[in-house]
């Protein structure tokens, strides 16, 4: 092909991608780079535990900062698409497929920080790529600390649900092994298969402790493990997105949470069918200091597992201790499970929103997700799973009822706070516009 033919093809390509009156192929490539960088940030937010609304808003802000006249973006848990149009009339579109997600609150924080850098400093494509790749590799602490988070998490929740110190130590050891195996299994199986395998494997490990002669409770060990596996992110984000108007994404997240919990139940069913143990349902009065302290330990474990930044640990732990104290107080009032969960959910959601504003953290999930785990019905989930296996319908429905009450309490608490904040902001905005018109 001679030089004239190459130039002719290049001119033809430029005419096809550029509308009349647009500048050059160089500008088109530059705009594609800007949109690609914005969608990279959106992907980083979604992959690491952020909401779709935050991802969409960040794409719009970045593109507007680089001079876009109109930006349209749509994100769900598996794809993000964006279109930006410049004042010159040049328009570009891109989409990105999102294959996996894994909560990493530290990277989520970094994604928001570098997005602000894009908006304020407007770096070129090479600088944006360097910032993004650095954020994708960022870790708040070594992997060994992350694995210890699994131990701390299951240890704390086993104690919280009336387990003995030996129960908690066994549960903690299994939690450590669980996180160690998870990354290796994910290389060969999808999330659903991995959840089933890990649940069955951890249930069998708990049974092995009994076979070895340890005086431990299979039930309490299993409950601690279940608390580590329950899909907190899908539940919290799904509720907020569903009632925030994003019906498609909210429904997908809730469905994903239901499938994940079903996989957990199936995994433990396999373990229960292999090793037949009767559950320990002995009613115990847990001392208040033990209850509050173990909740703080469990929340700390979740903060490590979710990879929150170290400076966020103190407010997260304080929020967990305060929530556990509130739960104890509400239990003494005799209002019932759903009311207790509802008021605690309101407190947690409000605490997360207020504290994120105080420290100027753009994502409330940093505080909401670890603390919200206190309200997860891991105990009732375990017992309902067991009674499916032995076909005890009466006890099964009793535990399902209690589990449903806690879930409804969480849902309505989050909705109450979000709607209240939304109406307050709407009222203030209308009042501001009215004052401007009067002037």
From TrEMBL:
Q: Does the keyword Transmembrane helix apply?
A: yes
Q: Is Membrane one of the keywords UniProt gives this record?
A: yes
Where it sits in the cell: the answer is:
Cell membrane
Q: Name one GO biological process term.
A: succinate transport
Q: Where is this region: Disordered?
A: 1-23
Q: Which residues cross the membrane?
A: 165-181, 188-209, 215-233, 254-275, 287-306, 313-330, 336-355, 367-386, 406-428
**Keywords linked to the UniProt accession:** Cell membrane, Membrane, Transmembrane, Transmembrane helix
Give the Pfam families listed for this entry. Answer: ThrE (PF06738), ThrE_2 (PF12821)
Query: Locate the Threonine/serine exporter-like N-terminal domain: which residues?
Result: 38-273
GO CC list: plasma membrane
What are the residue boundaries of the Threonine/Serine exporter ThrE domain, all occurrences included? 293-418
> How is this protein situated with respect to the membrane?
Multi-pass membrane protein
Gene Ontology MF: a single term: transmembrane transporter activity
**Family assignment?**
Belongs to the ThrE exporter (TC 2.A.79) family.
Q: What is this protein called?
A: Uncharacterized membrane protein YjjP, DUF1212 family
């Amino acid at each position: 092909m001679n030089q004239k033919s190459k130039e002719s093809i290049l001119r033809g390509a430029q005419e096809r991608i550029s509308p009349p009156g647009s500048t050059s192929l160089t500008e088109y490539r530059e705009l594609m780079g800007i949109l690609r960088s914005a969608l990279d940030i959106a992907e980083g937010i979604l992959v690491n535990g952020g909401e779709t609304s935050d991802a969409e808003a960040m794409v719009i802000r970045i593109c507007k900062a680089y001079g876009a006249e109109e930006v349209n973006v749509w994100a769900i848990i598996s794809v993000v698409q964006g279109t930006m149009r410049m004042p010159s009339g040049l328009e570009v579109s891109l989409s990105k497929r999102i294959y996996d997600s894994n909560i990493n609150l530290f990277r989520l924080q970094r994604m928001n920080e570098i997005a602000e850098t894009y908006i304020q400093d407007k770096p070129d494509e090479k600088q944006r790529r360097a910032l993004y790749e650095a954020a994708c590799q960022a870790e708040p602490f070594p992997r060994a600390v992350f694995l210890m988070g699994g131990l701390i998490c299951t240890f704390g929740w086993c104690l919280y649900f009336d387990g003995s110190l030996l129960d908690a130590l066994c549960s903690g050891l299994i939690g450590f092994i669980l996180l160690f195996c998870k990354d290796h299994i994910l290389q060969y199986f999808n999330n659903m298969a991995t959840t089933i395998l890990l649940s069955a494997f951890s249930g069998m490990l708990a049974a092995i402790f009994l076979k070895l002669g340890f005086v431990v409770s299979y039930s309490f060990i299993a409950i601690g493990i279940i608390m580590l596996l329950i899909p907190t992110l899908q539940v919290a984000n799904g509720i907020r997105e569903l009632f925030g108007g994003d019906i498609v994404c909210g429904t997908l997240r809730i469905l994903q949470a239901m499938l994940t919990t079903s996989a957990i139940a199936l995994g433990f069913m396999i373990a229960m069918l292999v090793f037949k143990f009767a559950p320990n349902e002995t009613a115990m009065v847990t001392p208040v200091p033990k209850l509050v302290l173990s909740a703080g330990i469990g929340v700390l474990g979740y903060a490590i597992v979710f990879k929150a930044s170290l400076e966020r640990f103190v407010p997260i732990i304080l929020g967990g201790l305060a929530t556990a104290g509130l739960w104890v107080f509400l239990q003494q009032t005799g209002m019932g499970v759903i009311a207790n969960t509802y008021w605690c959910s309101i407190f947690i959601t409000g605490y997360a929103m207020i504290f994120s504003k105080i420290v100027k953290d753009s994502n409330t999930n940093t505080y909401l997700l670890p603390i919200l785990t206190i309200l997860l019905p891991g105990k009732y989930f375990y017992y309902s799973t067991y009674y499916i296996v032995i076909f005890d319908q009466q006890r099964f429905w009793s535990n399902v009822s209690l589990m449903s009450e806690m879930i409804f309490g969480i849902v309505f608490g989050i909705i109450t706070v979000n709607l209240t904040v939304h109406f307050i902001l709407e009222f203030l905005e209308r009042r501001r516009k009215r004052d401007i018109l009067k002037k």
